[in-house]
Amino acid sequence: MIEAPKGTRDVLPDEIGRWQFVEECARETFERYAFREIRTPIFESTELFARGIGEGSDIVAKEMYTFHDRKGRSVTLRPENTAPVARAFIEHQMHRAPGLQRMYYIGPMFRYERPQKGRMRQFHQIGVEVFGSDHPAVDAETLEMLMAFLGRLGLDDAELALNSVGDPVCRPVYRKALLAYLEPRRDTLCEDCRRRMADNPLRCFDCKVEADRAVMARAPAITDYLCAACREHFGRVTEYLRAYGIRHRLDPRLVRGLDYYRRTSFEVTLQGLGAQNALLGGGRYDGLIKELGGPEVPGFGFAVGEERLVMSLPAAAAVSRGTPEIFIATVDERGVERALLVARALRRVGRRVVFDPLPDKSLRAQLRRANDLQVRFVLILGETEVRERAVTIKRMSDGSQETIAEDRVGARLAEMAGA
Ligand SMILES: [Zn+2]
Ligand SMILES: [Zn+2]
Fold it and tell me: I need a labelling partner for 233 at 20 to 30 A (CA). Which of 69, 77, 133, 213 fits?
């Protein structure tokens, strides 16, 4: 038997309703804020991620699905989608359009993770990017949209944590202070952190090793090193959030390792997921477009793992949508053609109809199947019905039956469904 590759899984029809619910909430919410969808390719030049995420990052160093195509070009299955969206922004010269560009995406991402940690190698993200303004109102409005989205999903215990990671003016000063703190502790840190110290000590905040996390918890806070402009920006963001009445927590150790992040950095946690299990993260990345060879254009965005959203949905949101309402039962071969035509007529007026052409099955077996499907009505095309161009409608809620002319079925079902 051939199984799905390690680290991948099928989303089966029985669970798809929850995924569709999440995606519909995302689309509807984001579009109210003038975001539009963008679909970028599943694979990109490897160089895009090497430059956009950074050679030294764990993603690029250890987790990418990189291969050579038949012409020897190095391509990579996208491990995230901010760099591809930024690439598209530059390639299509979207900075020339007036105003801000707001985009969202929904789709699969790929990282070569160790599956025993419960991480998937193909996972799904919903994300947004705003390009064109570094105004703190962009940060606040996008965060408000995010919290509205989570609220619509019923994730009311979502907690927003916020920080500023400075900019090229003040971050070097902080970096120095952080290094001065880390140097005497070098020997106690893990190998990864010692490498990070040389490369980008801010990445030590990403470390998952318990002892290192304790060391980082006492490290100097970046908020004490912000320049006046960054302090002002951060102050405005939190002011707007207070005006919205959005609860948030300031977390001076929320430092994102990626080089292009500037100023606002945030994450959202859910009670159920635990402190280390952030539901999502994001922030401002004013340096990215330039880094990728584009003009100086500021950006802000977030990405959330769809698996986690689906998993965290309250049970009440277990929507089943698109399930059939009407089941057609036949007793012999002569009923099949009538069934096909009746089903088409009903579908043309918007009904969801299921007809399983298994006329050898007893009527009783077909009714059991209709019951399992939880349809509201069964249409029976028995011998008499077929001869007289009639249909018997059985209402499943009370078992009542009536036989009417075939061409009146649609109208009668509409009456009965309304009642
Ligand atoms: Zn470490
Ligand atoms: Zn600054």
Answer: 213
Strands (E), 198-318: 248-250, 262-269, 278-284, 299-305
| Ligand positioned closest to the Cα atom of 216 | 1
Question: Of the candidates 23, 56, 81, 58, which has an alpha carbon nearest to the alpha carbon of residue 299?
Answer: 81
- 3-class secondary structure, 393: strand
Each residue's pLDDT expressed in tens, for the chain with a length of 419 residues: 999 998 999 999 888 999 999 999 999 999 999 999 999 999 999 999 988 887 777 788 888 999 999 999 999 999 999 999 999 999 999 999 989 999 999 999 999 987 666 678 999 999 999 999 999 999 999 999 999 999 999 998 899 999 999 999 999 999 999 999 999 998 899 998 898 888 888 888 888 888 998 999 899 999 999 999 999 999 999 999 999 999 999 998 888 766 678 999 999 998 766 555 678 899 999 889 998 999 999 999 999 999 999 988 887 666 666 788 999 999 999 999 999 999 999 999 999 999 998 867 899 999 999 999 999 999 999 999 999 999 999 999 999 999 999 999 999 999 987 75
Domain closes at, from 277, 299, 317: 317
Protein residues with C-beta less than 5 angstroms from the ion ligand 1 = 190, 193, 207, 209, 212
Let me know how long the chain is.
419
Q: How far apart are CA 18 and CA 280, in angstroms?
A: 19
Q: What is the CATH number of the domain that holds 133?
A: 3.30.930.10
What range defines the domain where residue 114 resides?
16-170+226-317
The three-state DSSP-derived secondary structure of 63-117 is HCEEEECCCCCEEEECCCCHHHHHHHHHHCCHHHCCCCEEEEEEEEEECCCCHHH
Asked if 51 contacts 76 with a C-beta cutoff of 8 angstroms, the reply is no
Cβ atoms of 105 and 88 within 8 Å: the answer is no
How many angstroms does the Cα of residue 57 sit away from the middle of ligand 1?
Answer: 14
264 CA → ligand 2 middle, Å? 11
Q: Is 38 helix (H, G, I), strand (E, B) or coil?
A: coil
